[in-house]
Design goal:
The structure is a homodimer of 240-residue chains.
Chain A: E1 5-11, H1 13-16, H2 24-34, E2 38-45, H3 49-62, E3 65-69, H4 80-88, E4 92-94, H5 96-108, H6 115-118, E5 122-124, E6 128-130, E7 139-142, E8 145-148, H7 152-162, E9 173-179, H8 183-196, E10 201-209, E11 212-221, H9 224-237
Parallel strand pairs in A: 1-2, 1-3, 3-8
Antiparallel strand pairs in A: 4-5, 6-7, 7-8, 9-11, 10-11
Helix pairs in contact in A: 3-4
Chain lengths: 240, 240
């Protein structure tokens, strides 16, 4: 069997200017390799509509999957969603399902879902939302393009949401456990767990809600029995 | 004046597999920004002739300068030099000037300039050698493509050799302001600011630290006075 192919598209002037070092590509590369998907090409382009649309079209036509990072926030330079829609000739507007997620999130914090924040509910028709356990504003998958945030912790959490939905070269089992304690408290035991299960990938994605700190711990691996064993040990360490 | 444009081409399966994190792009981006050259695009591709030749041709035709890293060592998978020659229809063989540099280097160490090492003397006709003060095997410039090593210390040394030979533009002035408020709250005023200063690039980069949400707002431009004016207005809007 030939493994699926993929490309990464990093959208970000801050990478090209040297202000920020892209780390999402390195994370994605490692995860895809574990998932049996061959990352064949990476492109970094600026926050301009024309290069984004052109790159999405060519990469989407060339590879089985395209992952993008950056440009899906609430500010004027966040134009990725509209560019993806344009690349596929799809209609895009504020979508009710995405708006509901944001409404719940901001209501809980006593904040207003203002015009800027509503930009993050702009999702193309027929796109499937990607869960964002950290800051809620969802990513989305349209055709074979998976659109995710640029902030590394959110990119990683979204990737953990979307990767299990993608058929890889070898099956990968993933289980998530929510722990309502600060990351600093759980980091050492989880590190020990990772050492005890070197063939598993154990990820920790912190969240903060209404002053409550916690983390979603994701355990991934190719052997279901091992994943279950590690998850059992994790739950014993941190009972609900 | 419009600044020169550039692209980076990273050649390396080890980056795509997640084994190694590319740091050359970040270094290049910072150096180019200081030199007044706008890095517009980065591509990472695998060690295969076809994608290398195709990428060199398109990037060389699109941008004023192309910088490559990787694939110029002594092993069978170091195919960059031959691919660059092919992209431009140039003749390539072991060149006397490059061979002399290697001969001196290996003689001094009592080592043989064997067939593998001689591969590093394969340089296209009409290319200008790029000095490598670290491990001697030279890079080269052919037309507007600057071919350099993948090892970061050598890449950096080669870039230091080649950059002074390239005419730069106006260095880009950049100022950053940290605002400890959610992006959704500051998006509208920053969008207004971007509209008021259309020649400046105003980017908003959110962060999340220990449950604190905020954003770094970066104002970039070629006119220091304008950047300062926009920054003054931003600080007045969001005083610390």
């Amino acid at each position: 069997m030939t493994n699926p192919t993929a490309a990464m598209l990093v959208i970000g002037d801050e990478i090209l200017s040297g202000r920020t070092q892209d780390t999402n590509t390195h994370h994605l590369a490692g995860e895809l390799t574990m998932h049996g998907i061959n990352l064949k090409e990476v492109r970094v382009i600026s926050d301009d509509p024309e290069p984004i649309v052109a790159a999405v079209q060519i990469l989407s036509a060339t590879y089985m999957h395209v992952f993008t990072s950056g440009g899906i926030g609430p500010t004027h330079d966040d134009i990725t969603a509209d560019c993806i829609a344009k690349a596929f000739g799809s209609h895009i507007d504020i979508r009710d399902d995405a708006r509901a997620i944001l409404q719940t999130h901001y209501d809980a914090q006593g904040l207003t879902l203002n015009e800027a924040r509503l930009r993050m509910a702009r999702i193309p028709d027929n796109a499937i939302l990607i869960d964002n356990p950290i800051s809620k504003a969802p990513g989305f998958t349209l055709k074979n393009v998976h659109v995710m945030a640029g902030v590394p912790s959110i990119f990683q959490a979204m990737l953990a949401s979307v990767l299990p939905t993608i058929t890889g070269g070898e099956p990968l089992v993933s289980e998530t456990y929510r722990i309502e304690r600060g990351e600093g408290e759980i980091a050492a035991p989880i590190s020990d767990l990772a050492s005890a299960f070197p063939t598993l990938s154990i990820g920790c994605y912190p969240f903060q809600q209404n002053g409550l700190y916690g983390a979603n711990v994701v355990i991934r691996g190719q052997e279901p029995g091992l994943v279950k064993e590690a998850m059992t040990r994790l739950k014993a360490e941190f009972p609900t």
